[in-house]
From TrEMBL:
Pfam families the UniProt entry points to: ABC_tran
SUPFAM superfamilies: P-loop containing nucleoside triphosphate hydrolases (SSF52540)
Designated name of the protein: ABC transporter ATP-binding protein
Keyword RNA-binding set for record: no
InterPro entries on file: AAA+_ATPase, ABC_transporter-like_ATP-bd, ABC_transporter-like_CS, ABC_transpr_LolD-like, MacB-like_ATP-bd, P-loop_NTPase
Stated family: Belongs to the ABC transporter superfamily. Macrolide exporter (TC 3.A.1.122) family.
Amino acid sequence: MATLVSIRNLRKTYQRGPEKVEVLHGIDLDIPKGDFVALMGPSGSGKTTLLNLIGGLDSPTGGEITVDGQRIDAMTAGQLSHWRSQNVGFVFQFYNLMPTLNAQKNVELPLLLTKLSAAQRKRNAEIALQLVGLAERGKHRPNELSGGQQQRVAIARAIVSDPTLLICDEPTGDLDRQSAEEILALLQSLNRDHGKTIIMVTHDPKAADHAQRTIHLDKGTLVERELALEH
């Protein structure tokens, strides 16, 4: 299977007052196209830092990140912003929906940067909401939806531009177990039936069990990889 994400000697250092703190220490990692990876590790291990670097939300101190043949570590902030809009969908723990917009308008937000007509944006948002099982809730605002439904809207927003890569940071961290299971089943379906490559940070082993593979970080170093059972 072709490699989608290739990471070589990746390092990230932050300046905290007079001290430099190295968060990632020379990581090497390959993620094949169509993979569903769970990224686990204790607090402070570098999980979210690694996720943000792969998603182009931050730039590394050293090393290389290649996504679908493009070197993103050397991109300027403007180039990264454009690249993200074309290639990455983001799902966060707290949904980050606009409270004044209904579900459909929230899903349309990434499309405002494209040349699509208003009618086409509306149609694409409707298709995305249908994919996540919320076709009938497009006119509802976030405060009229449950937590699980709000996360489905966030996932619809993440996939509406048909990105190559889905980046999920604790996507079930704010949900009850039943809603979490539904969201994880949805991510599995997007991976299995629609070919989406997914990288998910989670602290929950039950959530990680839904992935094809689990990668463990500890103190900024890759310490273990294990293949999950096929689903």
